[in-house]
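Milestone 3.1: sequence recovery, worked example.
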């Protein structure tokens, strides 16, 4: 696209404030706010891409009083000072704009509006069309045939015709309207009693403010006429304040407004510090730095044999598999890339089967040739998400030993709050490289091809690049892990866990599809019964799955008390929280909640799970995510087997559908109250420690200590005490605890106070956890896992309170997660050592499930209990509940 010969003049303060309020709660992992900077840069990028300005400048208000303050001391007196978390962003934004080689202007004693107006007129005088970019309507007074105003929020360009169409007056009449109506935000008085509509009508009738003042006797409305006559001095002052200065003593050298060549290295450094990964990637791509590459494709066995001694001599090997599926338990191996020195890699095509594909080394032959190096534990293996490669290779006849560095896991330990640790993100952030993406070689959407259908040479560049990047990243990330004292956590927990999870995913779990089909049919019947009941209660039929229709029925037709309106539809919300509140009084709300619960179970489990059964194994193979939860917990996806319902009739029905192979049983091993035991260890509270050392029930004990009356039976007291115990761990407020207990906040606060009276060291520990997190910027588990808590530095009280909850809960929940990971590793190793046939198949936070041959029942019961209870010496005993069953439901 050719650049138009025009100049864009950006109102820096206007766009900055708009970005600040439009994007909330965006900050770096160490708590530095970035929302306004990010929003501003996105607006700027959009303008540059869509409008292609030939010349560009950003204008900011200068610090200190302006000429308008000299005219009117109270000018902008009501305006609040710039928020602190915006103040710190402004110099960083200016630094970025300077690095982008964009002209910046500030003029002492004048506002940005005056500078923008002056520059626009100077440009227009030289025959150059000018566009002022702002959300401020004051600058509409500058619009003419050569000057336009662009509002980036509305994405609207204001010409004289558009100003007249939207505001009912011409650009030159805008100051008259503004002077009459005033502006509370700038403390411009205007005429009392005259609003926007009256001001506009007066200017439309009289043509201008001066004409109106000269013809006050013709004003028909006596109230308006009296107001004008009484406030003529204020009116003239207001007009002076709203009129922009158009002739500042500024030099206008057009060449200074050309966009220069960006200082890319400087921008990369800033974007990296601000954790702007997308902008970092774009900058790196634009840099187009040529990397020295030496990528080769291996087609012949003799070529492959020559690589073996070279790999042996290096002592390390980065690998990357290319497949035809993102699911490692379904994927077929298409190729393998190998790298052991910077910038050099080899691609071994093994399964490209497109028309005209050249002959490739047979899979079994490649496995045989590579066995020597792949199974050698002395050759350290490196990869990105190496669990995927491990599963794919094992299923294809390759064995892999000597796992050493998984760059995805290393990055996760360093930055647990990132959420995503893709190779592209890591290469951009740490190496300042923009790698070829999968979409670039495979395509997108329906046009996307699988790797086996893409030309070998094309895949080779992508695959070799990934292996080389993994090698480079390992060299950078490992010293950082060591420096952060995370190497023991990695070597003793996260690294050995990779093989454990790979085995679990490969083995999978058997699900009875017939049972699920029956459950689905029964759920459908139950939903239909509820639907009829709901229609009967409201007296009409409608789409129960439509929030809009449901809102209309409940709040307009039935007249139930409405809650807040939604932002999208502007109708009243029918969310779960709203319905739960209504359910206390209205049966129909209870029925709708139950209907939704049944629908969710039907769609998410009864119908979804059978589709995920692998046709080759007859089992479901979930993926355990090692690098997602910031606490260190494992999560499960495709499907999420940690979220299978457990409570109630339907929960039991679903779990009955999970069954072992014939001649096997399920063994469930569930840590008893592990987080409370961890709390006892970390807090060293004597009373809490004694409860566990005496093998007493902690919930009953807490009930006896907190409930001073016998108004509730023992079972109900224990139930409430359990809620209190776990609420303390999660940093619940009196308000949220009251909601859980069904009592008042005042009563809930009494329970919290009584709890801390009984366990005073728990209170001290929780208080110290927050203080320590505020001081050092992170919390950590017993095993050294660290989690930054930038929320504690936030100005927003709600976000800061969320940070406090993170600081309280992460050391406890994270330590519990580390303990069960260690137990999984120890059990897995012992099973291997004894050559047992039992398999660990599920991990659901504090619970492990095993598929055990009948002949190994006693052995596994003893082994699992011993390894889990003795995983680490806490000051209180760890206890495990064991249960057997012919399905998952029976193990509870």
């Amino acid at each position: 696209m050719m650049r138009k010969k025009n100049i864009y003049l950006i109102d820096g303060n206007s766009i900055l404030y708009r970005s600040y309020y439009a994007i909330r709660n965006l900050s770096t992992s160490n708590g530095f706010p970035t929302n306004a900077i990010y929003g501003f840069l996105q607006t700027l990028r959009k303008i540059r891409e869509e409008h292609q300005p030939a010349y560009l400048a950003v204008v900011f208000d200068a610090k200190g009083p302006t000429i308008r303050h000299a005219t009117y001391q109270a000018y902008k007196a009501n305006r609040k000072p710039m928020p602190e978390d915006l103040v710190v962003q402004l110099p960083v934004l200016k630094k970025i704009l300077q690095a982008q080689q964009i002209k910046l202007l500030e003029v002492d004693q004048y506002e940005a509006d005056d500078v923008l107006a002056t520059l626009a007129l100077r440009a227009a005088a030289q025959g150059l069309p000018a566009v002022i970019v702002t959300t401020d309507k004051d600058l509409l007074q500058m619009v003419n045939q050569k000057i336009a105003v662009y509002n980036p929020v509305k994405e609207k360009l204001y010409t004289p015709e558009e100003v007249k169409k939207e505001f009912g007056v011409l650009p030159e009449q805008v100051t008259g309207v503004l002077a009459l109506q005033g502006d509370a935000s700038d403390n411009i008085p205007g005429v009392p009693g005259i609003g926007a509509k009256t001001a506009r009508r007066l200017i439309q009738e009289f043509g201008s403010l001066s004409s109106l003042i000269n013809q006050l006797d013709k004003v028909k409305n006596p109230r308006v006429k009296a107001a004008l006559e009484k406030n003529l001095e204020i009116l003239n002052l207001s007009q002076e304040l709203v009129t922009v200065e158009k002739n500042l003593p500024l030099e206008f050298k057009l060449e200074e407004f050309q966009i220069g060549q960006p200082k890319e290295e400087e921008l990369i450094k800033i974007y990296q510090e601000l954790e702007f990964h997308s902008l970092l990637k774009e900058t790196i791509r634009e840099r187009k730095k040529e990397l020295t590459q030496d990528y080769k494709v291996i087609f012949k066995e003799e070529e492959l044999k020559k690589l073996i001694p070279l790999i042996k001599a290096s002592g390390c090997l980065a690998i990357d598999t290319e497949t035809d599926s993102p699911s490692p338990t379904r994927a077929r191996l298409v190729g393998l890339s190998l790298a052991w020195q910077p910038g050099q890699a080899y691609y071994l095509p093994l399964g490209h089967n497109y028309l005209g594909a050249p002959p490739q080394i047979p899979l079994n032959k490649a496995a045989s040739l590579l066995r020597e190096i792949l199974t050698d534990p002395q050759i350290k293996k490196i990869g990105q998400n190496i669990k995927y490669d491990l599963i794919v290779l094992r299923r294809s006849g390759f064995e892999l030993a000597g796992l050493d560095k998984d760059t995805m896991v290393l990055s996760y330990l360093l930055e647990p709050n990132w959420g995503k640790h893709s190779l592209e993100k890591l290469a951009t952030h740490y190496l300042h490289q923009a790698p070829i993406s999968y979409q670039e070689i495979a395509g997108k959407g329906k046009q996307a091809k699988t790797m086996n259908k893409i030309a070998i040479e094309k895949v080779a560049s992508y695959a070799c690049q990934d292996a080389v990047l993994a090698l480079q990243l390992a060299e950078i990330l490992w010293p950082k892990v060591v420096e952060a004292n995370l190497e023991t956590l990695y070597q003793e927990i996260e690294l050995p866990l990779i093989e454990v999870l790979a085995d679990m995913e490969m083995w999978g779990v058997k699900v009875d599809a017939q049972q699920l089909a029956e459950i689905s049919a029964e759920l459908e019947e139950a939903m239909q019964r509820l639907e009829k009941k709901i229609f009967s209660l409201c007296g009409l039929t409608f789409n129960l799955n439509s929030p809009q229709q449901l809102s209309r029925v409940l709040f307009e037709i039935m007249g139930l008390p409405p809650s807040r309106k939604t932002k999208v539809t502007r109708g009243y919300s029918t969310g779960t929280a709203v319905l739960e509140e209504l359910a206390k009084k209205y049966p129909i709300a209870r029925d709708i909640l139950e209907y939704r619960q049944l629908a969710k179970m039907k769609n998410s489990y009864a119908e979804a799970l059978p589709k995920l059964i692998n046709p080759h194994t007859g089992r479901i193979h979930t993926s355990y995510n090692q690098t997602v939860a910031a606490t260190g917990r494992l999560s499960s996806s495709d499907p999420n087997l940690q979220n299978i319902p457990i409570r109630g009739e339907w929960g039991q029905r679903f779990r009955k559908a999970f069954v072992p192979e014939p001649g096997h049983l399920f063994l469930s091993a569930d840590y008893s109250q592990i987080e409370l035991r961890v709390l006892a260890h970390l807090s060293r509270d004597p009373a809490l420690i004694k409860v566990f050392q005496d093998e007493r029930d902690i919930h009953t004990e807490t009930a006896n200590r907190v409930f001073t009356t016998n108004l509730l039976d023992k079972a109900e007291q224990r139930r409430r005490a359990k809620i209190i115990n776990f609420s303390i761990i999660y940093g619940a407020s009196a308000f949220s605890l009251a909601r859980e207990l069904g009592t008042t906040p005042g009563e809930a606060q009494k329970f919290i106070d009584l709890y801390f009276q009984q366990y005073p060291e728990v209170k001290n520990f929780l208080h110290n956890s927050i203080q320590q997190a505020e001081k050092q910027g992170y919390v950590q588990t017993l095993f050294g896992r660290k989690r930054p808590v930038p929320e504690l530095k936030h100005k927003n009280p709600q976000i800061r309170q969320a940070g406090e909850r993170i600081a309280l809960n992460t050391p406890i929940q994270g330590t519990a997660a580390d303990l069960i990971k260690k137990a999984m590793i120890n059990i897995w190793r012992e099973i291997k050592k004894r050559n047992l046939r039992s398999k660990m198949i599920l991990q659901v936070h504090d619970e492990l499930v095993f598929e055990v041959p009948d002949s190994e029942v006693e052995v596994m019961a003893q082994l699992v209990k011993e390894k889990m209870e003795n995983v680490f010496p806490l000051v209180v005993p760890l206890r495990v509940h064991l249960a057997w069953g012919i399905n998952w439901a029976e193990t509870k």
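The mean pLDDT is 90. DSSP finds 37 helices and 22 strands in the chain.
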